Amino acid sequence: MSDGNFNRQLLPKTDLSSGLRAGKAQMKMKAQQAFEQVINTYFPDESEERKVAMKQSFMELLRKS
């Protein structure tokens, strides 16, 4: 009788996990583009170095979540 453990290699291959990764990547790109639009709209006079620093900080926060 099985104890509930199973060998993952015996399971059929599915595209679910790769689809989830692709969806997450798309959402990160959309979030990055939206953030850039907000920065350029509300802070047009900000220096490019400062904008890049804000974008990097935002992307780092996105990676942690």
Please provide a written account of the structure:
By secondary structure, the chain is mainly alpha-helical. Helix content is 68%, strand content 0%. It has helices spanning 16-42, 48-64. Helix 1 runs antiparallel to helix 2 (48-64). The longest helix has 27 residues, at 16-42. It is elongated and about 65 Å long. It starts with 15 loop residues before the first helix and ends with a helix. The mean pLDDT is 85.
What's the layout of helices and strands?
Layout lengths: L15 H27 L5 H17 L1
Helix pairs in contact: 1-2
Keyword list:
elongated; about 60 residues; single chain
Q: State Rg.
A: 20 Å
Mean pLDDT: 85
- What coarse outline follows from CA principal-axis ratios? elongated
Tally of DSSP helical segments: 2
Q: Helix/strand/pairing class, anyone?
A: mainly alpha
Biggest β-sheet: count, sense, barrel?
A: none
SSE pattern: HH
Head-to-tail CA distance between termini: 40 Å
Classify the helix fraction into a percent range. Answer: 55-70%
Q: Give the strand tally.
A: 0
Proportion of residues in β-strands: under 5%
Seen as an oligomer or otherwise, the chain set is: single chain
Low-confidence parts lasting 5 or more residues at pLDDT below 50? none
